[in-house]
Design brief:
This protein is an alpha+beta fold and 326 residues long. Helices cover 21% and strands 20% of the residues. The two termini are 23 Å apart. Bound molecules: 2-oxoglutaric acid.
Amino acid sequence: MKSQFENRKTEPPASYNANMVAAPNLTMMGHTVDTTPDAFGQLVDSTALLEDGDALRARMADDGYLFLRGHLDRDQVAAARLEICRRLANMGYLDERYPIIEAIPTHDKICGFDPPALTMDNEPLMRLLYAGRMITFYESLLGGPVSHFDYTWFRTLNPNCPATCPHCDVVYMGRGTHNLYTSWTPIGDAPIEDGPLCIMQGSHRVQKLHDHYCRTDVDTVCRNRKSGDGQHRLQSPNFGRLSNNPPRLRKNLGLPFLTTDFKAGDLLVFSIFTIHCGLDNVGKRIRMSSDSRYQLACEAQDERWISIGGKPPIAHGEHARQELVC
Ligand SMILES: O=C(O)CCC(=O)C(=O)O
């Protein structure tokens, strides 16, 4: 079924870079991606703006994302990757006929998304994400001291895993400030065939999303509505998914998907209102990336993602439930 957001047409933003990413037969959730220049292109590198907070903010406001080619320390990325690969190997997820750093998956195991096992006490990953160049960048973007969520998302997507569905982050983490940004950090190279992330340029300005979808919260139930089984209805019945068919969603919004052949050290930053989703992994390796969140330290934080009293963040689920009339 089409969602209501698949019917809106919007003009592509003027800053759209029409250089097509050269890769045939790309799919998202099994659907063929239109790779013609108006529909699919390269992320624009904003490294030249790094020293200029106003320029970074202006570009973020225009495009809904910032891409920084090679901004992070490649040695730190390599150290984080090695630690993740050691853990995956210990869990039996890697084909031991290859060096573990290549992350070639075993095909009899499901490899998915298990952040605590991969991120807990992972010093090299924490150094990469929450110190040094990452934090300096956010101080420049946000213009003041920054804080980050204590929860670190980590994705290990092998060629058989379904790619991430299109969504905006606000529906998962919008209970605090909306001046909140995601760092998508490939932990190693993530070329197009390995299924990296795509953002939809300019989608953070689609008014219809702001009026409806972006006001929902995946852990909220509607006190005044019941579903067929007599339970209170979730405010976001699809757990935040905007569509099962990302290329169709893109076509109806009239905005381009942008991505690139990511290299270790690259950083993609986007707003919590920017639509993003994954390409299907048609390569041989596990695609590894982390997503982490940053905001001004003086602004309210979403309590689901913060460690209180030394306990891990409560994340989604029963503990995070709130009821509203909606
Ligand atoms: O890496 C992915 O496939 C999904 C990442 C994501 O959804 C996010 O960064 O919010």
